[in-house]
Every structure is written in C-alpha cells, then in structure tokens.
Amino acid sequence: MLDLQLEIFLLILAGFGLSKLGYFSKPTRKQLTNIVLCLVLPCATIQSFEIKVDQQLLVSMILVFMVSVGIQFLYLIFCKSCWNGIKDDRKPSLQYGTMVSNAGFMGMPVAQSAFGPTGLLYASIFLIPQRVCMWSYGVSLYEKGTRQEVIRKVATNPCIVAIYIGIVLMVLGMFDIHLPKFINDTIGAIGDCNTALSMIVIGGILSDVPKEKIFDHISILYSALRLLVLPLLIFAILLFLPVESMVRNVCVLLSAMPAASTTAMLAQRYEKDPEFASRIIFVSTLLSMLTLPLIFLLLEWL
Fold first, then answer.
1. pLDDT at 218
2. Which end of the chain has fewer CB atoms at under 10 Å, N or C?
3. Which pLDDT value is given to residue 224?
4. pLDDT tens digits for 68-106?
C-alpha cells in the first residue's frame, strides 16, 4: 500500500519537475489531457471488464455489485448536500471527487494485496457502478448546455462507449469468446499508460499552484469526508446488513480511497479550476497514507 502511494507521488513529482523546467507547458498539458480522456482511459476501462466469471462466485459478485450501487446513491446524497456553499469553479471538482474515488488505480492492487485473488475479483465488480456514474453523472457536473445536450454528450463520451464495449466483452467471455490477442494486447498497452500520464499531468498542474495554497481548509475538509467519514459510515451500515465479511471489507476499503485522478483531467478539459482539482487529489492522496492503514487495521481487527 505504501509502495503504491509513493509511486503516485514520484509520478506527480515528475510532472511537477518537467513543468518547472519548461518542458511541460499549459497547451501541452491540455493536449495530453484530451489524449488520456479520449484514448488511454477508455482502453483502461475496457481492460478492467475482462473478468473470468466463476459460477461459484456469482452470488457474491452480485452482492458486491448491489452494495456498490447503494454506495453510489450514498455518495450522491453527500455530493448534493455538502458543497452547496461553494459557488465558484471548485464546486464541480468537489462534487465529482465525492462521487468518484481513485479505487480504479489504487483500489484494485490494494484489494489484491489485502484479500488475494478473490479481493481483486470483487474490486473489479465494485468498480462497475462507479465507472458508469463517473462517466455519466460525473461528466454532467462539468458539461454545460441543455439536459438533452448533456445526455447526448455523456452517452457518446469515449469512456461511456468503453463501458458498453467492456460489458459486451465480459458477457462474451462467459462463453469463452475473446478478442484476438493482438487487439487485446494493444488495448492493454495503451491502458497501462493511464496511471503514469494522469499523474504526470496532475504534477504539471500543481506546479502552477502557490505553495501556501496547497493545504487550504477546503482540501482538508474534503479529504476528511472522502477518507474517513464516508468509509466509516459505509462500514457501520454494512455491519447491520447480511453481508459476508469479505464483501464488506473490500467495499469499505475501496470506499476509503482518495480523489480520482480524473478529477483534475476533467477540470483541465472544461477549464474548471484544474489547480484546485489537483490540490484535492494531492492532499487526499497524501493523507490516505495514514488513513488507509487505519481503515485496514479496523477491518482486520473486527
């Protein structure tokens, strides 16, 4: 867990250094952001749906999926109620960051390390509702226009299209029908660039943020909500539901992840204070180095 978080910070530092040295300008960051959102992330999304479905695990997988859907509804309540006092361009990032965590990048390897192959499988299922929400309601927080225009843009977003393709491939995989190896390898090679490129862009954006503004009170408040309040509330709710311990533990651990890197990607693309979006990613990721082990110890203790 610590190695993974340190990797994130080194990638952010690389982008920060490149920007300070003059090799990573704002126009370049914007172009790279579009490449990540339109090509790299869709490939990573398709890759995440390539799951082998075991009939013995089907019931547990359905349960994980239902819990994840319930968690997204809980996020929606907090998303709509917590940030009404924010009236500027920070609001979409705070709302999006409440709905969507970094469970895709950090959560899957952490779940695998903590709970083995079954934990990884559950994490893959847990991410499906989040991916749908992040590329539907999440994007609508940044998009401007009529409801019909927003729905059309969201429905044709490359990452939403990737979800359609991913679900089809997952179903076909149940009948042992797979993509040709060269296509699958190409998608995997592009998708594997996701973490490095996303974090380097975030580092570049952070280079424009004055040092004294990185740890502002809104970033600290957001981090407390995402890293402690929401996972502990979810844990308390699941304790009173007939959910097996492995399902509960994976869902709680994934809900304790910091802000998603796509928060800064979308803020950059739609020009909604990308410096602030990068700030909440940096601060929440930094603080998660303390909170994630605490959450994991709580789960193990119980």
1. 92
2. C
3. 96
4. 999 999 999 999 898 988 888 999 999 999 999 988 767
